UniProtKB/TrEMBL annotation:
MF annotations from Gene Ontology: transmembrane transporter activity
GO cellular component, one term: plasma membrane
PROSITE patterns: MFS (PS50850), SUGAR_TRANSPORT_1 (PS00216), SUGAR_TRANSPORT_2 (PS00217)
Keyword Transmembrane: yes
Origin organism lineage: Bacteria, Bacillati, Actinomycetota, Actinomycetes, Mycobacteriales
Keyword Transport: yes
Source organism: Rhodococcus coprophilus
Domain Major facilitator superfamily (MFS) profile: 21-442
Keywords associated with the record: Membrane, Transmembrane, Transmembrane helix, Transport
Name of the molecule in the record: Major facilitator transporter
Coiled-coil residue spans: none
Length: 469
């Protein structure tokens, strides 16, 4: 007899059922991108407004990204403890509240604090949204769905760039406040819409809430037109451990105990690839302005980088089920790094530099969607949001402090080509590690990873439902 998990993962895809989850979850992810991209546009404006040093300008991105790092851990843990739905809504509400307050900051110190708190709320969007969407998606197209989720990222970053570019005629002393306020109303509207999303039936089944799980599964079966079959609900038999502050530590230990090889892979891929992308995104307007571009051209060039990423994400959704997760990440990640190095080397020829910037924007968005899909599939349901959340959090911490080093040490001392070359070398190391220590997840059911002879040591397999490392 089938389990409730299997029924959900074998349902046909319907836009009015799973597609609704995909769109609403993706819109939250769009705000994550909008907010991160906003740091790059705010940095030169705030630097002038408050007469900031280069190191202080780096704090604009650092405060926000470190808040996201903390939020990714906290909300990933909460989503595994109290459910996806509640965390799904609260993340955006906290983000919207502190974004409004940030727009009225009286000084730089208060601004950084409020950006940290806004990031704390928004940092939960990626782990919570990916956990929820993955658990509603049919197994056969889950890779495409999760990869396509990332299309919301370049859309959000591009919308941010378009808004920032259109606001260029406004006095810079107030323009940064308008940039913050512009995204708050749609975020609040999305928070209201998210209240109608059902809880993940796979999560409900795992925590023993059988009646609620059956209600959601039966409703999905009816709405998708799938044949009605008998199924059983199989709850998680192991203790879920303590709550409160100890819950985060417990989940962290669970993530590493499950498979040190997989967790090391997830963390290194997240840190290296996101460091490459966020370094470009956070500093690109400043880099282009330093190379003689006008403010409008610098903002438009950054928008070009994010805009072509939309095509990259759509392409990744086509490639992920053909070549598998590991091949797409392993090839596109290093190529994106090489493109960014060539951009830095060609900055004195503006037309050629913009071509390489566009190539980077396209290729990096082949990598990131598949990375998110891959990591969300590597962990079982009970630690999926936590596993993704910790990997995301580690990358947010690294990319949060990177702007300080980038602006004050690496860019002025090492130069852009060498700086981007060092990060690219880290990406290469991470994908080589992945090739040995992590399995391919293409066409596998969630929670049923089996031993992969190509995955090397530290890869889990399941025997009789028990995870073995």
């Amino acid at each position: 007899m089938k389990t409730g998990d299997q029924v959900v993962q074998e349902l046909p895809w319907k836009w009015g059922v799973q597609g609704k989850i995909f769109i609403i979850g993706g819109l939250g992810y769009m705000f994550d991108a909008w907010d991160v991209a906003l740091n790059g546009f705010l940095t030169p404006l705030l630097g002038t407004y408050w007469d900031l040093t280069t190191a202080e300008r780096g704090l604009v991105a650092t405060g926000n990204l470190v808040g996201m790092a903390v939020g990714a851990v906290v909300w990933g843990t909460l989503a595994d403890r109290m459910g996806r739905k509640r965390a799904f809504s609260l993340t955006l509400l906290i983000f919207a509240l502190f974004s409004v307050l940030g727009a009225f900051s009286p000084n730089f110190e208060v601004f950084i604090l409020l950006r940290f708190l806004a990031g704390f709320g928004l940092g939960g969007c990626i782990p919570v949204d990916y956990a929820l969407v993955s658990e509603f998606s049919p197994r056969k197209i889950r890779g495409k769905v999760l990869s396509a989720m990332d299309v919301w990222w370049p859309i959000g970053a591009t919308v941010c760039g378009v808004v920032a570019t259109l606001l260029v005629p406004i006095d810079g002393d107030v323009r940064w406040r308008y940039m913050l306020l512009f995204m708050v109303l749609p975020a609040l509207l999305l928070f209201w819409v998210r209240r109608g999303i059902p809880e993940s039936p796979i999560y409900l089944a795992k925590v023993g809430r059988e009646a609620e799980a059956r209600a959601v599964i039966d409703d999905m079966v009816e709405r998708t037109g799938a044949p009605v079959v008998e199924y059983v609900i199989v709850p998680e038999t192991e203790s879920r451990g303590p709550g409160g502050l100890r819950a985060g530590w417990t989940q962290l230990k669970s993530v590493w105990t499950y498979s040190p090889g997989i967790t090391a892979t997830a963390w290194m891929l997240f840190v290296s690839i996101m460091l490459l992308y966020y370094a470009a995104l956070s500093w690109m307007p400043s880099i282009l302005r330093a190379e003689g571009y006008g403010e409008f051209a610098a903002f438009a060039g950054t928008t070009l980088m994010t805009g072509v990423g939309i095509v990259g994400v759509l392409t990744s959704a086509l490639l992920v089920e053909v070549f598998g997760r590991k091949w797409v990440i392993g090839l596109s990640g290093p190529v994106a790094g090489v493109a960014l190095v060539l951009f830095a080397m060609m900055l004195d020829v503006q037309s050629v530099a913009l071509i390489w910037l566009g190539i980077f924007g396209f290729v990096i968005q082949l990598t990131i969607p598949v990375l998110y899909c891959y990591v969300s599939e590597l962990y079982p349901t009970t630690i999926r949001a936590s596993g993704f959340g910790y990997a995301s959090s580690v990358s947010r911490i690294a990319t949060g402090f990177a702007p300080l080093l980038f602006g004050s040490v690496m860019w002025p001392i090492l130069g852009l080509p060498l700086t981007f070359g060092i990060v690219t070398a880290f990406v290469v190391f991470a994908v080589l590690w992945m090739s040995y220590f992590a399995p391919e997840t293409k066409n596998r059911e969630l929670d049923t990873l089996v031993d992969d002879s190509a995955a090397g040591g530290g890869t889990p397999d399941t025997v009789g439902g028990e995870v073995r490392v």
